[in-house]
Design brief:
The protein is α/β, with parallel strands linked by helices. Helix content is 41%, strand content 21%.
């Protein structure tokens, strides 16, 4: 329970240390896994001092054990080995230091490591971190390549030399880090994050030469796998040789069998690209030439058609047709006009022959009353009535007699003009 303290009544350091020790003493023994980073076995000393480190989280704890406990595994355990320790937390009050008192130490064998890696692999795969849909395509020609590798390592030399041999203008942003041991995981993670945040880096290569399962173990660390999965920049894994398959190979956007293969996969060969460009230019030239030849043949065929050789031929043919039709129309119209003229002449002759004027010219006259009415019968005329006589060449006035003589019945006295 928390102690009641005030600025006027503080607890002494010794009492605080004893309270912490009392609380820790109530903790039971636990199994702890880690990697041995420091091992101290002083001759004649009955206690062995170890430092266990968690590579993924950069956390360490001190471990002490009796020499007899350590002697059981002294032949198979050394610095850098992964072990499982059954220990109880202890508090050393004089120094205020927490440590673990180990009662048993078990080395982690290769088989057990592989089994744990397989279990971790299944767990990460179930989360979809290894899915093909998450992998990004590499740029065709990266301007700046990030490289994470060991200092002055063969992997660094292979990547740089092969890449510059293929494309001399390629540039690298190199981060030298430990690639094995207890400090490998945090340093690789930091380098990957730094290159991923670099605005000019187009692709990141994580390279390391071959080694044992224990040597390549940092590249199967869960934190490193998740860091690579979260990267925005495409990542290429070039760890070990062809048979080596750390978990980094599965989460990376591209797996290269070796660092040399990574350089060949990331950087195009300038000679091959120039040859490809030349072939494409030749192919394009052939395509354009074939297209022009085809169009020229089509144009020549079009120009060879009669309507194109003599473009006025069709107009001339139509002009002849129009001329023939015009002549035919004129002949037809002339016939119609001649027929109409003949009919008009005949009609005029009949009209003239039947007109009252023609009758008057034969010696007949028309008698009219003063009001213009035509005299049709003798009884219509009164004695001494003045009548107007109309003849072919004019008219004159006549007076009826008191008792006109009887006219022969066969000769009419006047012809009435048609109304």
């Amino acid at each position: 329970m928390a102690a009641n303290t005030t600025p006027d009544a503080p607890l002494p350091v010794g009492q605080v240390s004893r309270l912490i020790g009392g609380w820790i003493d109530r903790l039971g023994a636990i199994w702890v896994e880690g990697q041995i980073t420091q091992l101290s076995r002083r001759p004649g000393a009955g206690v062995v001092f170890l430092t266990l480190r968690d590579p993924s989280h950069d956390v360490s704890l001190s471990v002490t054990c009796y020499r007899a406990v350590f002697d059981r595994v002294a032949d198979v355990v050394s610095e850098g080995a992964r072990v499982v320790v059954h220990a109880k937390p202890e508090w050393y009050a004089p120094r205020g230091q927490l440590s673990l008192r180990a009662a048993e130490i078990r080395p982690v064998g290769v088989g057990e490591l592989l089994a744990r890696l397989e279990q971790l692999k299944k767990s990460l795969a179930a989360e979809g971190l290894f899915a093909d849909g998450r992998k990004r395509a590499l740029p065709f020609l990266p301007q700046l390549i990030g490289l994470v590798c060991g200092r002055a390592s063969a992997a660094e030399r292979d990547v740089l030399e092969n890449a510059r041999h293929r494309w001399p203008a390629v540039r690298f942003e190199v981060r030298n880090v430990p690639v094995q041991g207890v400090h490998a995981v945090p340093n690789v993670i930091e380098a990957v994050k730094e290159l991923d945040a670099h605005p000019g880096v187009d692709v990141i290569i994580v390279a390391r030469g071959g080694g044992s399962v224990e040597d390549l173990l940092p590249f199967s660390d869960e934190q490193l796998v998740r860091t690579v999965a979260d990267c925005r920049t495409p990542v290429v894994s070039a760890i070990g040789h062809e048979p080596d398959t750390p978990l980094l190979d599965l989460v990376a956007d591209l797996r290269a069998s070796t660092p040399t293969d990574a350089a060949k996969r990331v950087v195009p060969d300038v000679g091959e690209e120039l040859t490809r460009v030349r072939h494409l230019r030749e192919r394009a030239l052939r395509c354009v030439t074939a297209h022009l030849d085809r169009e020229e043949r089509g144009l020549a065929a079009a120009r060879a058609r009669p309507c194109m050789e003599r473009p006025h031929r069709m107009v001339d043919e139509r002009a002849e047709q129009i001329g023939a039709l015009t002549d035919r129309a004129r002949r037809t119209l002339g016939h119609l006009l001649d027929r109409a003229s003949s009919e008009l002449t005949h009609t005029h002759a009949r009209v003239v022959a039947l007109s009252p004027a023609a009758t008057l010219r034969r010696g007949y006259a028309v008698l009219q009353h003063a009001d213009g009415q035509v005299v049709r019968a003798a009884g219509e005329v009164t004695p001494e009535e003045e009548l107007r006589a109309r003849v072919a060449e004019g008219e004159f006035t006549v007076r009826a007699m008191a008792s006109p003589p009887a006219s022969p019945p066969a000769a009419p006295s006047a012809v009435t003009p048609p109304a």
